[in-house]
C-alpha cells in the first residue's frame, strides 16, 4: 500500500490520521490540532487533580444557610517567559471550556510577575517598568484574570525570611539600594541567581497569602524540573528536593521581627499553601512549539524578547551560573533524548519527604540535620560570620557566605 505513495505526498498525522502532519511530537508526526491537544491534556489532567485537592474546606452543604463558598483562588508565578505564558493560556482555555458547558468558572486566577529590575536600575517610583508595560498586553488578552507586578524589593520586608541570618540591611537607604547591596555582598554569580530565585519564591508565597489564594502554580516544564533537580543537588540542597520539585502542601513559617530562628511551634501558626507545577509532564520545546505555532495570535507576541540563555554565546565560563550550565545541557538532552529528561524529574517525584521540623532561614527548605554536616565535611567549612544566630541549609550558607 505504501509503495504507491508518491514521494511528495503529505505525511498524515499518526494520531487523527486525517490531517497533514506538520509537527513532531516525541518522535511521532502529528498535526497542529493533535499537538495542541497533547499539550492541553497534560496540563488539564494536573489541574483536575489539583481541583480535587482544593475542594471547599467547608465540605458539602448541610442544607441550611447559604451553600459553602467554593471559590478556588490560584496564584500563578508569571516570569513572562514561554512556560508560564503557556500556562496562563491553557488555564484561560480551561475556563472558557467550563463556561461554555454552563458551569461556573473553576477558579479565580491572579498572575504575579516579580519584577527584578530594581536589581539593575534605580526605580524611584517615577517610571513604569518594562514589565508593567508587558503586563498590559496580558491584561488585554486575558481580561478575566488579574495580572500584578510586584517588585523584588518587597521581599526585604517579608517575615518568612529570617533576616538575622543575612548581612544587616541599611534601612535608611531606598529599598532598591538595599537590595543591590545585599546582592553585591554575595560571593558569586551562582549565589546571586540562587538568591534571586529564593526571594522571588518568597514574594510569590506572600502574594498568594495576601490574595487569599490556596495554591501557588509554577510553570516549570519537565525540563525545568530536571534542571532544578541537578542544580539544587549540585548546590548541596538534595535533601530538600522533594519539597521543591513535587506538588503538595507547604507550611509557611513566619519569623517574629528581631527574634532569630524561633522553632516553628512557638511562632504564629504556619499557613499551609499548595504548590503545584501543572506543566510538569511537558518538555520545554513542546511549550515553545505551542507558543509559536498553536495559538492565534501566537503567544510569542506577548513574550518580551529577552535573551534565550541556551543559545546566547558564552562570554566567560566563570560567569555562568549552575542554572545556565544546566539549561545548556538539557537543551541538548531534550533534543536527542527526551525520555532522559522525563526520567530525571520523575525519579525525584518518587522521593519521599522525610519529616523535618527545622527550616532554613533563607530558602525555608527543611534542614537535613546530618546531611548538611556531611556536605560540609566533604566540601570544606564555610566561613561563619560572627554572631549569626539563625540556621541556614548548606546551600544557602554557601550562597550567602561563600
Ligand atoms: Zn492529528
Ligand atoms: Zn536554605
UniProtKB/TrEMBL annotation:
Protein known as: Cytoplasmic tRNA 2-thiolation protein 2
The keyword Cytoplasm is assigned to this record: yes
Native source species: Cercophora scortea
InterPro entries in the record: CTU2, Rossmann-like_a/b/a_fold
HAMAP family given in the database record: CTU2 (MF_03054)
UniProt entry tagged with the keyword tRNA processing: yes
Subcellular localization(s) per the UniProt record: Cytoplasm
Biological process (GO), any one: protein urmylation
UniProt family annotation: Belongs to the CTU2/NCS2 family.
Cited function: Plays a central role in 2-thiolation of mcm(5)S(2)U at tRNA wobble positions of tRNA(Lys), tRNA(Glu) and tRNA(Gln). May act by forming a heterodimer with NCS6 that ligates sulfur from thiocarboxylated URM1 onto the uridine of tRNAs at wobble position. Prior mcm(5) tRNA modification by the elongator complex is required for 2-thiolation. May also be involved in protein urmylation.
Entry GO CC: cytosol
Keywords: Cytoplasm, tRNA processing
Pathway the protein acts in: tRNA modification; 5-methoxycarbonylmethyl-2-thiouridine-tRNA biosynthesis
Gene3D superfamilies for this protein: HUPs
A single MF term (Gene Ontology): nucleotidyltransferase activity
